[in-house]
Design a protein that fits this description.
Layout: E1 6-11, E2 16-22, E3 28-35, H1 37-41, H2 48-67, E4 77-85, H3 89-106, E5 110-114, H4 115-121, E6 134-139, E7 144-149, E8 155-160, H5 166-176, H6 184-192, H7 214-226, H8 232-257, E9 262-266, H9 273-286, E10 289-291, H10 295-298, H11 302-314
Parallel strand pairs: 1-4, 4-5, 6-9, 9-10
Antiparallel strand pairs: 1-2, 2-3, 6-7, 7-8
Bound molecules: 5'-O-[(R)-(carboxyoxy)(hydroxy)phosphoryl]adenosine and zinc ion.
Zinc ion is lined by residues 115, 119, 140, 142, 300.
Amino acid sequence: MTQGDLVLGIETSCDDTSVALVRRDGQVIACETVSQFEIHSEFGGVFPEFASRAHLHAILPTIAKVMSAVNSDPARIRAIGVTRGPGLIGSLIVGVNTAQALGIAWDKPVYGVNHLRGHLRSPDLDEPRIIYPALLLLVSGGHTLLCHLQSAVDVTVLGTTRDDSVGETYDKVARMLGLGMPGGPALDRLALAGQAVHRFPRPMIREGYEFSFSGLKSSVARLLEKDPGADRADIAASFVAACLDVLGAKIRRALAEHDATSLIVVGGVAASRQIRDLVADICTEHGLTPCLPPLSWATDNAAMIALATWDYLEHDAPQDLRTTPSLSLSAW
Ligand code: KG4
Ligand code: ZN
């Protein structure tokens, strides 16, 4: 078997078909992502059946396009890494089956990669940015996760959400305010124009590291029921203030109880100006290095899956290709 210098990463866990070639040092040789945004926008959320069909349609042309960056030469490929979970089962199966077929055709090892481990490695794409030990907050449409990283593979999950993720909550509240889809960015902008005059609950703010956001979302709905004419920007500002208080309290608690040199924030919600400001403030307070990777790597992409695959190779991880929709971070 050849000893190529690149890992081919494949990511199809949700609504993006993404393929990338990445070197051990995090250099991204090629990355192509086909978004399904237009397909799902009329449903107000991801429609799983359409997602897997769209992956099936996009995956081979996307692989061909990425491989053209190395003259379509499989000798450059050391291994293939594909997301095996968490995610939508039909979408995961498309990626895993394709990776398996390529592995047989090219005689390469194929690793089923934990999508969450991909997110943890994403800040080291292009250039190494993580200084260990680190605290990491993942805030995306699909996940809310606070973790302590002693090293790239020594990960302790401190807390996750019991119900909705932060991004999902932003999107649902945005919909209540008539802001379209995905509403997170619009809600974030609207909040800047309002005053936090409503006192929404700060769910679980005093308890450990777990999160819960559905009660906060319901409080916004109740306010709108009672007072349909309430100023939308004020509601947005009050909602964002509650989210920031909860996130800030959990991060500060984690920093009081764990050693950290850097604070990493990844996931689509990390695009929020207000979240970025919160992270900057906390870093100043604690003398930490803020680590906010470029947004292209903070949202779902195959480059992070490829980089994580190098860890699998080096740690002799199992080549486990079982698709697992609710895979936990503690699993390979
Ligand atoms: O990581 P991501 O791109 O994808 C998935 O999780 O699938 O995260 C998407 C989430 C959405 O909920 C979106 O509304 C939210 O990130 N988001 C934002 C902003 N930009 C994207 N939320 C708040 N402020 C933003 N500027
Ligand atoms: Zn993700």
